[in-house]
Amino acid sequence: MKAPDFNRCPTLVFTPIGRDAVVATALLKEAGALALVCRDLEHFVAMLDEGICCAIVTDEGLRNADLKPLGNWVSAQPTWSDFPFIILTQRRGAPDQDPELSRLAATLGNATFIERPFHPRTFVSAVGTALRGRARQFEARLRIDELRESEARLHTALTAGKLGSWELDLSTFALVVSPACRAIFGHASGAPFTYSDLLAGISRDDRPRMTDAIDCSLATGCDFALELCTLWPDGTVHWADMRARLVRDGIRKTARLVGVISDITMRKAAEDSLQQANDMLEARVAQRTAELERSHRLVLDEMRQRERAEELLRQVQKMEMIGQLTGGVAHDFNNLLMAIMANLELLRKQPQDAIRAARLIDGALRGAQRGAALTQRLLAFARQQDLKVEPTHLPTVVRGMTDLLERSIGPRVALELKLPEGIPLTLADGNQVELAILNLVVNARDAMPEGGTLSIAVDDVQTWGDNGLPAGEYVRIIVADTGKGMDADTLAKATEPFFTTKELGKGTGLGLSMIHGLALQLNGALRLESEAGRGTRVELWLPVTSQRVTTPDLQHDAQPEGSVIDPIQASILLVDDDALIATSTAYLLQDMGHEVIEADSGAAALEILKAGRRIDLLLTDYSMPRMTGLELALAARELRPTLPVILATGYAELPQGADVGIQRLRKPYQQHQLVAEIAKALTKARAFG
Known about the structure:
The chain contains 21 helices and 22 strands. The protein is α/β, with parallel strands linked by helices. It has five domains: 11-144, Rossmann fold (3-Layer(aba) Sandwich); 161-263, 2-Layer Sandwich (Beta-Lactamase), CATH 3.30.450; 305-381; 390-543, Heat Shock Protein 90 (2-Layer Sandwich), CATH 3.30.565.10; 560-688, 3-Layer(aba) Sandwich (Rossmann fold), CATH 3.40.50.2300. The strands form five sheets. It has a five-stranded parallel beta sheet, with helices on both faces. Strands 7-6-10-9-8 form a five-stranded antiparallel beta sheet, sandwiched between helices. It starts with 10 loop residues before the first strand and ends with a helix. It is an enzyme of class 2 (transferase).
């Protein structure tokens, strides 16, 4: 235990005769203790206080004196205090042999007698013992004060929370409860309340739960927690929440439950009301659900007809642009076919002229290449081509579709272009942008039936967040016409889906809404300005990007004339249901030095694979009856898991499952493209084989 601090806990010295006070004070000072000398008994009694550690007195100072004030002070000590007295006596024997000393011992209680003369060490030891004992009393006082404070806080908490306290001795079932606990069971605060009274105040259904919970806590040590229905003496029904913790007495080998109780009648009533409301709500929801299901069944054929109509309108919108191009496309294809047919006809008649034959063949190839490019353009407009967002130079996009725009607007409309080269890049899909521009151009053309001027410009602008867009740099495509324009009401509805001012069958009303959706998708905006009789101005804003255009792989796009054919020789299974295409492809493969095995269907190709014949590569068309090229590829992989497959198709959008490591070759293709794909497939197969 921590040693007492003599300097902070003074010792009273009352030795009125001789040099005892001087000696005691000197010894206490050497021991480091603080001494207070009293002049007489009255002064001594007045100086006694709870803060004094002990007192040193001589028996002659107290003999024949009135000890009643001193005895009253000793008797009035708090329960934690037992004040120590050290009595310096003459050699007259033990206290029980001296009536006066016996009177002192009975009056003072905690008294230690030291005969004079004494050794200083004996005196200091007695004082130290007294001080340590007093220090323990001070610690007991501190603990008692803390306990009282805790009890006060607990009482405050119980009162504030409207909680009652209870304690049940599990060996005798003696119950101690607070007035609040009695009130929760409907009993007056002063009335007796036993464990039997408690059980009698619990509903019959909950009494077994009460006893079972007590047994469980006693057996396992778990906390006691129950919500009980209580019956008050006046017959009313209430609810109580009882909680307690098991406390064991290791000395007496007993256990008791100590806990709190609260009245939850109002909460239960609220829960019951809420449950009733929930039941009513569930009933209404069930009723409403049944009504909705009936309504749903009635109108189901109708959320489906609308869906089909909307999907049809979307497809019409996609094809409307192609319809606008039909005349020009037909004219271009006729010209291309004419060039190809004429060149091939002349080549058949004059095969001996090698120089002339080379020119004719070259002309036919260029015509075919132009036709392939036009086909890819149509596929893009019809959404049959892969779409990807990448750094795009918009002036280049517009410049590349100039011929298409001129054919679309006709001879009565003058086209003006302002396409500077120094415009920064933006993230966009070129095909989407082309479709958006073509939509705007067709709308402008229709707004100028008598002719006019259509201008398309691209510039870059800076915004500070004051026009609904985040602050930053943007590229802007501006399409303006001198046509009919729109009034304020029409302009407000222009971007709404299916809204159109065109005649029935001339438009779907999806053009501007699709462009608006594209702008939002690319983190940009669509701006419309128009006035009846003064034309329309449309601005497509797209944010500038710091990304750079990736260098294209030229291996698949160009091959120098006369280049060496790939040296890898292989046995190739060629599958195509079109005999004309199969024959020309077989010739190309044989010209490259490969062995070609032909099959005109997927089933025939699988039979060849099952026969165990050596096959290094499968080259199959995608669009075939009964079994597509993709289905054939998947079936072939089951027979030969490492077999490389090239899927030739004129469409870039393939069904789910087409991305399982199968190479694709876009039709129409040239020999150098076929060479590159075969070399790539065989090299990869041999690297992993």
